[in-house]
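Hello again,

I reread your note about wanting to compare the complex against the isolated chains. To keep things tidy I'm splitting this into two emails, and this first one only covers the full assembly. Below are the input lines as submitted, including protein chains and any nucleic acid or small-molecule components. They are followed by the predicted structure of everything together. The single-chain runs will come separately.
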Amino acid sequence: MGITATVGQQAASQSSAMVWLERVLWVSWVPLVLYTVFFASIPDVHDGMHPVRHSTTIVQCH
Amino acid sequence: MTKLSWMLPLVLAGLVIASGFGFVKYYNGYEGPGEHWAPESPIAHEMAFFATDMSAEGDYHVTIEKLESKAPLLFVEYQTPGTVLDMTVHSDDGIIRLAEQFADEGQYRITVQHTIHPDHNEVIDFTVQTPLSKYTNDVLLFVFLLLAGLLSGSRLRGLAMICLVVTASSFAQPQPVMAHGMGGEMQGVTFANEVDDVSLTWLQGKAPTGEANRTPMDWRLQLSKAGKPVQRAAYALDFVHLESGFAVLHIEGVANDGVINLKYSPPDGTDYQLQVRTVIDGKVYHLGLEGAAEAIRPTNGRKWSSFLLMMIPFLIGMVWGWKRKRS
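Full-complex prediction:
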């Protein structure tokens, strides 16, 4: 009985952590994509994304 | 209302035809030629051609100034207001011709003025337009961010929604012009600075240094034959962006004492070759000299303002999706 309760609590806290992780990911995936595509100054990323950075009116490349 | 519903197909047909006419009218305005420029309002990142007949032989001082940027928050300002081109061109028949690729949109002025008779001049104000594809991409990015926000807000994992987001993002077209991302690869033909005994050198002895889109740099050139300045030679100069292989400036004239007098702020921070086609003693020569302009990196303020502008549709989408999920 005791063992079952402990396992249940662990499972509940794990699933709660997963829910929170999922929430954080749903909120952060777009800012992360935007940063990588348009603003990251890592040279390889910049070179790979360069024409995309020039494709809108609001992003400055160089 | 229902009695009039039979008219709906006619109204729709009329609307489609009217929008067709409207689009053609807009497109003609977008790329139609003007009195001096073709197109009348040059499109940023595309070559625009200028010609004016000054009707008299002589040296002309040609300047292009940027007077005003277009809403810098929404339209990135690469070139700050000020002089872009400053050169003296000799024309035997009085016609001044040039072609230029502008770095960005805004209000500009071109002045052509006789160096000895300053009253003999032409001042033309013109607008440089935003490429149509950039507006399309802005709208698609807005739709993508709104849908992405909606997806996040409602935490939907339906395939249809993801397909919509991916479809919206794939419609956008990259802007290939002035692309300089391929690690300094050079394309196209480049020329030597010396052929037989004819040479092209920097008038000030070395290549200029400076930043793109800022104060004009000193690109003055000297044409020589057998070590002596060429007295008089017709030339066509192409200022070639080496990473794309395209010219960003083209100008024609006559070099007196072999001097091509150019001060110019190029539209991109990268390597260039100044390619000169000239005729000396009945022979055609293609000569080139290489130089570079430094790139100006976006400031943190510029990055943040762009990023925050992009977050607005995402946040609107999230609130929308969140409310939809709850109701």
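For quick reference: Chain A touches chain B at residues 22-23, 26-27, 29-31, 34-35, 38-39, 41, 46-52, 54-62 (CB under 8 Å).

B.
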